[in-house]
Amino acid sequence: PRLDPFILNKSIDLRRGVTLVCRPSGSVRSALMQYIERLKEICPEQYFYRPEELHLTVLAIFSGTEHWQKEMERVPKCAQILQELLKKRHPFKIKFHGVTASQDSVMVLAQPVDDSLEAIRNAIREAFAGNGLGDLLDRRYKALGAHVTMMRFSRSCLNSKRLLGFLKKTRGTDFGEGEVSTLELNWADWYASMETVRVMENYRLQ
User: Fold this and answer.
1) What is the pLDDT of residue 75?
2) Counting CB atoms within 10 angstroms of each CB, which of 45, 90, 91, 136 has the fewest?
3) Coil, strand or helix: which one is 175?
4) Rounded CA separation 25/155 (Å)
């Protein structure tokens, strides 16, 4: 695994960003936390997301950067565009099914039951581009799929074989389905830590 250089001492990490997110429903969140507890039994030395921190990124308005202050002056315009755009959108459902791992983290896969999430992303990209804000989006990568991060590698894995076996055995886990009816515009650190998250706007889908 690739260890995160900041996660054990977030106070030295100056990166901040503004992100449009949605939260898993209560039942899905409970299922995710049960899985996280099993991960903790295998590798307690790693970094785990708390219930309030679990989220799915709809779109990073601007990704975490040490130079976030200079981006903030454009955020009110972004929020205004989102307000107009999202009031025309309907709630949509997402299935949380399957576990995967990257070099950095362990995630659950999120699968929208229709094209609503992709349609929202593309509408935002189009609206931002039309208002001279297109350069803010998709700086690190273009958001295509969806996932919820549960664990990040913060130390060498002391039980890597057992962890790998567990991930393989449980990769088809079904965490349930939830409806997304509210999107949050958040200012936060790289990890969306509950200590730093500031909800700037809530957008209720009609």
Assistant:
1) 95
2) 90
3) strand
4) 30
Query: Quick one: pLDDT at residue 137?
Result: 83
Degrees, nearest 5: CA angle 201-128-119: 80
Contact status, residue 135 vs residue 127, Cβ threshold 8 Å:
no
> Cα(105)–Cα(61) distance, rounded to whole angstroms?
22
Global pTM reads: 0.93
- 4-63, pLDDT tens digit by residue? 989 999 989 999 999 999 999 999 999 999 999 999 999 999 999 999 999 999 999 998
Termini Cα distance of the chain: 42
Q: Is the Cβ–Cβ distance between 136 and 71 less than 8 Å?
A: yes
150-159 mean pLDDT: 93
C-alpha 65/C-alpha 33 separation (Å) is 29
Q: Give the residue from 200, 188, 155 showing the smallest Cα distance to 14.
A: 188
